Amino acid sequence: MSASVVPQSSRSGLLDKKFKSLGLEYDFDFVLHLPLRYEDETAIHKISQIYPGQSVQLEGVVTHSEVVFKPRKQLLATFKDDTGQISLRWIHFYPSQQKMLEKGGLVRIRGEVRGSSMWGFELIHPKMSKAGEALPKTLTPVYPTTEGLAQPSIRKAVLEALSRTVLADTLPEAIQQKYLLPNFAQSIQALHHPAVGTDPDELTQKLHPAWLRIKFDELLAQQLALAAARAARQQKKSFPMQIQPGELAAGLLKGLEFSLTAAQQKVIAEINHDLQREYPMHRLLQGDVGSGKTIVAGMAAATVLENGFQVAIMAPTEILAEQHFIKMKKWFEPLGIEVAWLSGSLRTKAKQEATNAIASGQAQLIIGTQALIQKNINFHRLGLMIVDEQHRFGVGQRLSLSRKGEHLLQNQYMVPHQLNMSATPIPRSLAMTFLADLEVSVIDELPPGRTPVVTKLFSDNRRDELLEHVRQEVKNGRQVYWVCPLVEESEALQLQTAVDTHARLQEELDDVRSGLLHGRLNTQEKANVMAAFVQHELDLLVATTVIEVGVDVPNASLMIIEHAERFGLAQLHQLRGRVGRGQVNSVCVLLYQQPLSKVASQRLKAMYETTDGFEIARRDLEQRGPGEFLGVRQSGLALLRFADIEADYQIVEQAREAAKELRENYPEAVEKHLHRWMRGKEDYIRT
């Protein structure tokens, strides 16, 4: 029998299903199913010495019990030891518990003390067991669980897995000594069964040395996996691009109405350097809203197109993809490049024509949504894939587009270069931890002429004042966005909807030309509304978050976000970035409803205090966690179970350093460590 697999015969099928729902299948899954907290059942307390908030274990007798119906049905009892007495109360109870109390005799009870010495102490829903049984010699673990799975069942399964598993250390002694790491097996045992006297705060806050070892091992495995992904990518082949003479790129630059910033030029040079190599580029281009990422992507596309290859640009929403299509068509069609559009909402005939043009190579620059990764889409010769707002796609979706472009040449698969773009700046700690397998370029400079956006917080009771502000902006020849979180009324969230808001604003601002834009309009309707706003045929655009990214209207100077407390930080920052794109002073109003939750208050405060995208991202990371940034949550893969990339920043640094040393000097240890920690995460490693 393999030591890594739990024997199925030892458990019922129903129990197995419960365990699998928690991700527990193999012995090592149980070994790493670490407790949330602990109960101290190693001692018997005396009633005379207990205090409120204390978790206690008492032995004594029940002197009285009864079921009462005031104010509702509950079971009450009086419990006594040789030093005093305490009340017991069950609001929900079973007949078996009632019978146990009526039997009399010695019993053992456990629970948290409530009440006061003046009015008397009580235990609510205490646990009962037989008195006189041997006391455990370690703290009792309380594990994460699911409905119908009791703690004794988990404890038994974990104990069995520990007895079968050889917890050999994967790390050489020299590495353990260098980073002052405790032994792995001892750390695991210490976390499942902490010795009496272990500091409970150190355990629950994950500061105990045993926790530090587990977090180090997890982060080390991640760094090793990302290094392996980078090495594997460098073993793949891609078409090296010739950068000179660059006539297409020169033609593109000549047709622009602006000059590139120094930051854009630096990033273009980094991308060109990658495109010349014989293995696929895998670069992340990030920059704050309005920093000019699109023209950088256009320059990369120009280089690849000039080399005779196709370029595909995939965006997460139809509006964003369409904005790219309009812009790229304007830039490239005068240069003789055929630009194609592909989305799920295209009519059958148009979709087939686009599909044929992509397969034949007639379409050179292809822009679309995730329709680009459908089974029937085949590229003729894809040289570069550009994924915009990459964190919005799951790992699997990004991988699918890459595999679409694989090209067999002399028994060798050629893989397209890949450029990921994100307008959500990624904090350095997150980039170091999760993006160590790719190169990162940052546009850290805004184009000249952009004005800082002033952010104002307005309570909902100041709507009339806000309406007057809208009238004034329109009178001055400016345009306004009014963003709402929902399209139709929701019973769960009583929010002002885009449809209702538009109708109401038409009445209140009858002299203002307004339009409505939301995700349920068809493609042509969206395009017509957006075009009318761009051409200033509309003064006010009421919209849902479909305008979050990619929309560029320099004349828009006022952004109003209805129910701002309901939006995430990154989303608020992206929406704010829709204004301030011209030379006129711009304002973003965060319209909120009282009462505000603590988290919502923190979000609005962060927006008011800073316009720095990286600081916004750092605060957003604290609130949401890393999965949202990276698009890994959609793939169903957990990122980190034990470590916290902000709190454990020093361990991240040590793990990066140790990973490098292991790869250079201890290849066998690398293999053992990855085998232990990265089972089931192969797709993530490959990306």
Description:
- Residues 645-672 form a coiled coil.
- This is ATP-dependent DNA helicase RecG.
- It is built from 25 helices and 23 strands.
- Residues 1-9, 627-638 and 682-687 have low confidence and may be disordered.
- Helix 8 (209-235) crosses helix 23 (649-665) and helix 10 packs parallel to helix 11.
- The chain folds into 4 domains: 8-38 and 140-205, no CATH class; 43-130, Nucleic acid-binding proteins (OB fold (Dihydrolipoamide Acetyltransferase, E2P)); 247-443, Rossmann fold; 453-610, Rossmann fold (3-Layer(aba) Sandwich), CATH 3.40.50.300.
- It is 39% helix and 19% strand.
- A 7-stranded parallel sheet has the order 11-12-10-13-16-9-17, with helices on both faces.
- The protein is globular and about 95 Å long.
- It has 687 residues and is an alpha/beta fold.
At the fourth CATH level, what is the homologous superfamily of the largest domain?
Answer: P-loop containing nucleotide triphosphate hydrolases
Instruction: Trace the largest sheet across and list its strands.
Output: 11-12-10-13-16-9-17
Q: What would you call the shape?
A: globular
What name is given to the CATH topology of the largest domain? Answer: Rossmann fold
Distance between the termini: 34 Å
Q: Which residues form runs of ≥5 with pLDDT under 50?
A: 1-9, 627-638, 682-687
Structural class: alpha/beta
Indicate the radius of gyration in whole angstroms: 31 Å
Organism: Advenella mandrilli
EC number: 5.6.2.4
InterPro entries: ATP-dep_DNA_helicase_RecG (IPR004609), DEAD/DEAH_box_helicase_dom (IPR011545), Helicase_ATP-bd (IPR014001), Helicase_C-like (IPR001650), NA-bd_OB-fold (IPR012340), P-loop_NTPase (IPR027417), RecG/Mfd (IPR047112), RecG_dom3_C (IPR045562)
Enzyme class: isomerase
